[in-house]
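TA notes, week 10

Several of you asked for a full example with nothing omitted. So below is the full record: structure tokens for the whole chain, then the designed sequence directly under it. When grading your own attempts, check the secondary structure regions first.
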């Protein structure tokens, strides 16, 4: 572990030196996204599923839909729950056990974007007001972690939701065979993440770049509109930097949305 930290320090110093000339360690431009790939229908036992690859980062998301009882304050609304696990086999720095703070944040950021964009019509998930509803569970797992898990997880969750099929409730039974009805969704949301290192803004950061960041901003976008923001890191951004990030996020959201088609 001490050797890994020493290597990280050397690499971070290299990143900082390259950034002075506007260069990145992997040869990309500061505002260049890595290659994005989306595969859907990868888990046969899930109502919806997808694997998203961004560069070397790879994330899988699955959607399960089950019966439940609504919350007392929302008796005529279905339920969405999002969870994430940063698996130990996806990166040697992750550990097994209860969800880490990073995994909890990952789930919350994805969940917030979906909720704020009103992607799922929760009112249409009611079977009997106050008694029976459909509950939508989105589970996210890292398969290989090399940075920018926020955008990969958001894209995987959206791909899984947009292809999910609704079970059938009949005679007090849930039928999951030969499903044809789509989960009621409204549009698509994606996120774009920027980090700041020594006054430079980088989109789609790798894991080693994330270790060098001063600040991070993840922007959720639906239909060309900003629906969510999540700030990370101990540092901050200037007003001008935030404007640059928002403009860049809007631009990159188009590429991410194309990957969903």
């Amino acid at each position: 572990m001490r050797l890994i930290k020493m290597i990280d320090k050397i690499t971070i110093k290299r990143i900082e030196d390259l950034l002075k000339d506007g260069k990145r360690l992997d040869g990309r431009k500061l505002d260049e996204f890595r290659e994005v790939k989306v595969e859907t229908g990868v888990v046969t036992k899930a109502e919806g599923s997808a694997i998203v690859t961004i560069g070397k980062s790879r994330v899988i998301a699955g959607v399960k839909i089950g019966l439940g009882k609504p919350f007392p304050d929302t008796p005529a609304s279905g339920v969405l729950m999002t969870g994430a696990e940063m698996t130990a086999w996806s990166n040697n720095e992750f550990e097994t056990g209860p969800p880490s703070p990073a995994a909890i944040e990952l789930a919350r950021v994805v969940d917030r974007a979906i909720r704020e964009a009103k992607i799922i019509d929760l009112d249409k998930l009611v079977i009997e007001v106050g008694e029976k509803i459909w509950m939508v569970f989105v589970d996210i797992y890292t398969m290989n972690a090399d940075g920018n898990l926020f955008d990969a997880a958001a894209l995987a969750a959206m791909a899984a939701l947009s292809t999910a099929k609704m079970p059938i409730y009949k005679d007090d039974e849930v039928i999951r065979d030969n499903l044809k009805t789509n989960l009621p969704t409204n549009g698509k949301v994606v996120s774009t993440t920027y980090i700041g290192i020594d006054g430079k803004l980088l989109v789609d950061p790798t894991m080693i770049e994330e270790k060098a960041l001063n600040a991070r901003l993840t922007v959720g976008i639906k239909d060309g509109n900003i629906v969510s923001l999540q700030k990370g890191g101990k540092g901050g951004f200037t007003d001008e930097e935030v404007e640059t990030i928002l403009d860049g996020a809007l631009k990159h959201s188009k590429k991410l949305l194309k990957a969903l088609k």
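The two ends are 42 Å apart (CA to CA). Use that as a sanity check on your answer.
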